[in-house]
Amino acid sequence: MRLKILQQLAILVILSGLVLSSCKKDDEDKEAPQLWLHGSTWITLPLQGTYEEPGFEAWDKQDGELTASVVVQAQPNMNQAGLQKIVYTVADKALNSDTAYRYVEVVNSSRSFEGAVQGKLVDPYPGTEPLVYTDEIVLSETVNHELTIKNFANEAGSNVRIILNHDPAKYGTVDFVSADGLTMIEGSFSAAAIAIRYEKAGGGEAVVQLTKINQ
What we know:
This protein is mainly beta. The protein has two domains: 34-107, Immunoglobulin-like; 111-212, Beta Barrel (Lipocalin). Helices cover 12% and strands 45% of the residues. The chain has an eight-stranded antiparallel β-sheet, with no helix packed on it. A four-stranded mixed β-sheet has the order 2-7-6-5, with no helix packed on it. The longest helix has 26 residues, at 2-27.
């Protein structure tokens, strides 16, 4: 009789343990927290500009406010053109997690000039007809408003690097950076064209006018 009672008690203990274990599993936090990004998830900014984080917040049904626990992986490199991704991650005490992404496109602000342009070489010598040709402009990926004019003045291999000034004191002018075989005297630009007056290596001055094709 005593043995039977002990057996019944053992069975009750086992059953109670199973019930408690089942209840514990049912009470486990299996729901992930929620992570929201403030502002746009796609931002376009100029090279050498400043990135300001628009903000974010996170909330969990069990743990409550989790904004302070959000981990932000990487910040955009504002000195390199290209599309960059910022990763935001948050986890609750049960290690459920949520992830969000923001994309920052860093661009050269003078990209409207990128690609093929029509060049017009105006030579001041009497009897010389202006030369019209196709040129190419390549944007700098590290300096805003800097660009390279390939085969400048229709001279194969002659490349000119310039900066289009947007500072109020010098707006509309062009700064010379480097060139092959010539010296720039002055330059100007508008929304649709660039004009550069330069001195050839062998002497004499000329003007190149560059206009975006299909402008």
